[in-house]
């Protein structure tokens, strides 16, 4: 029977640590500030934003949601981001994706100052991550690494199979795992005979978005399983890529969905925002 990796509890512990850190910063006259840009009215995005604002309030970060209509032009959005880049009270800028189709998401992400890119998505921060330089790490991969570390899962020398090749999860988490001395195999939705690879894994990270992708037959005894995906099954229930009930009895540790990786993503966003405030303060002293 597997150990349940309780991301909800671990994220709560991290937020408490961050709350204490923000309290110390406030004594120095520093108040971390996060600006969330929300374009349109996507219901799922609204839910995610509520969670981020709630977490920010809990740890003491000054957060604000800048709401823009669906009809805003790309130029108007880029101009607003540039204004925020220059605003010293804003330490972190997050643009909630997806954006309306008439706006180029890559262009918008590139417009965010790397010093305020608390999502870790700008090419400069991605490049620094690739080369092992100090940067803001993408929040979900960062959260996965924290889950493993705080659950006492050994990464050094282990074989990890990452399923999914997105720029948000699959690619960056493979880099972070390699930096932690894991041997990483990258698979994806088009990999033939996926089980051939996953049965060799000490740790599996699945981020494809396909219900029932990983069954008990896909893993070896005592593997660690990190389920990143969030899907709706036929009954409308929120589930991941992994058939949790049958894999639970075979794995040594596993994340649930919900309550696994999701809460960690928001916790690491808070971490990055606080780090940005600290760096801005140090730069102003210099």
TrEMBL record:
The keyword Amino-acid biosynthesis applies. NADP(+) binds at residues 164-166. Keywords: Amino-acid biosynthesis, Histidine biosynthesis, Hydrolase, Methionine biosynthesis, Multifunctional enzyme, NADP, One-carbon metabolism, Oxidoreductase, Purine biosynthesis. It catalyses: (6R)-5,10-methenyltetrahydrofolate + H2O = (6R)-10-formyltetrahydrofolate + H(+); (6R)-5,10-methylene-5,6,7,8-tetrahydrofolate + NADP(+) = (6R)-5,10-methenyltetrahydrofolate + NADPH. One of its GO terms (cellular component) is cytosol. One of its GO terms (molecular function) is methenyltetrahydrofolate cyclohydrolase activity. Homodimer. Belongs to the tetrahydrofolate dehydrogenase/cyclohydrolase family. This is Bifunctional protein FolD. It comes from Baia soyae. The gene is folD.
């Amino acid at each position: 029977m597997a150990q349940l990796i309780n991301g909800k509890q671990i994220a709560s512990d991290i937020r408490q640590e961050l709350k204490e850190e923000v309290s110390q910063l406030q004594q120095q006259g520093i108040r971390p500030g996060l600006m969330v840009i929300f374009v349109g009215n996507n219901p799922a995005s609204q839910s995610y934003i509520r969670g981020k604002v709630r977490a920010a309030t809990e740890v003491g970060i000054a957060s604000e949601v800048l709401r823009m209509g669906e009809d805003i032009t790309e130029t108007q959005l880029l101009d607003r981001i540039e204004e925020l880049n220059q605003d010293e009270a804003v330490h972190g800028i997050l643009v909630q994706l997806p954006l309306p189709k008439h706006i180029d998401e890559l262009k918008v992400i590139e417009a965010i100052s790397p010093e305020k890119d608390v999502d870790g998505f700008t090419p400069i921060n991605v490049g620094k991550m690739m080369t092992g330089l100090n940067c803001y790490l993408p929040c979900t991969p960062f959260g996965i690494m924290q889950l493993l570390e705080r659950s006492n899962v050994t990464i050094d020398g282990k074989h990890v199979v990452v399923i999914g090749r997105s720029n948000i999860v699959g690619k960056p988490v493979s880099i972070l795992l390699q930096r932690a001395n894991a041997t990483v195999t990258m698979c994806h939705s088009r990999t033939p005979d996926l089980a051939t690879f996953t049965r060799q894994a000490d740790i599996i990270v699945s981020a494809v978005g396909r219900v029932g992708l990983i069954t008990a037959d896909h893993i070896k005894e005592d593997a660690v399983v990190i389920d990143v995906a969030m899907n709706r099954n036929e009954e409308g229930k929120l589930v991941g890529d992994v058939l949790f009930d049958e894999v639970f009895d075979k794995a040594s540790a596993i994340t649930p969905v919900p309550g696994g990786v999701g809460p960690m993503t928001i916790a690491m966003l808070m971490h990055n925002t606080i780090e940005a405030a600290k760096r801005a303060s140090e730069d102003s002293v210099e």
